[in-house]
Specification:
Helix 1 packs parallel to helix 6, helix 3 packs across helix 4 and helix 8 runs antiparallel to helix 9 (189-197). 64% of the residues lie in helices and 0% in strands. The radius of gyration is 20 Å and the shape is flat. The chain contains nine helices and no strands.
Length: 200
């Protein structure tokens, strides 16, 4: 399902050359915005303590839930993280077993992996969404970079990165699944996996 929408609502008077020039301009602007956003974020990571930028509190809860599922499964939903009353594992048993794979890495390395996957997921979601439009590839790439650079600094994205959440990866999985052709045999399976990890 592709919407029949061009970059400026119809073919510009200048023809294909004008469309390509507009796409190149958007690509340059998008690349600059994305590069500045990424550099500022890397500088912030380098100049602040890890707990100020990538605390990974939720990721630690995921790993704690995985540990309980593996070793004390009957306590999965009565266990409290680090003695904090009210901080419990609230995802599905399937999610707990999925998070168990993360226990093979040291926490800082796992936090880095989760951050990279989350950032990739943000860019991939935007790219997938723009693919539904009839823009030429250069314009789609420029718009993706521009929007990714801007969204990196919004509160929901920063919060997901700070806490080590899985929301951005689940978002990418669901958007990719919904954008598949209806004739595809396994369409909706990825949405089912995402729902199996996080129901809310």
């Amino acid at each position: 399902m592709r919407a029949d929408v061009s970059l400026v609502g119809g073919r510009p008077a200048g023809g294909q050359d004008t469309v390509q020039a507009g796409g190149r301009t958007l690509l340059i602007i998008g690349a600059v915005v994305a590069a500045v956003a990424a550099i500022v974020y890397l500088v912030a990571l380098a100049t602040h303590p890890m707990n100020a930028m990538l605390k990974g509190f939720d990721l630690q809860v995921y790993l704690g839930g995985a540990h309980e599922a593996l070793h004390h499964s009957h306590d999965l939903y009565t266990w409290y993280y680090d003695g904090h009353r009210g901080i419990q594992f609230t995802y599905t048993p399937f999610a707990a077993m999925s998070f168990a794979a993360g226990r093979v890495l040291p926490f800082k390395a796992l936090m880095a992996v989760v951050t990279v996957v989350s950032l990739f997921s943000l860019v991939a979601t935007i790219w997938i969404a723009f693919r539904q439009l009839s823009w030429e590839k250069t314009s789609r790439l420029g718009a993706t970079l521009l929007l990714s650079g801007l969204l990196l600094w919004t509160e929901p994205v920063q919060r997901a990165l700070y806490l080590g959440q899985v929301e951005l990866a689940l978002m990418a999985l669901i958007v990719w699944d919904l954008c598949q052709p209806d004739r595809r045999r396994w369409k909706r399976a990825a949405t089912g996996i995402a729902a199996g990890i996080k129901l809310v």
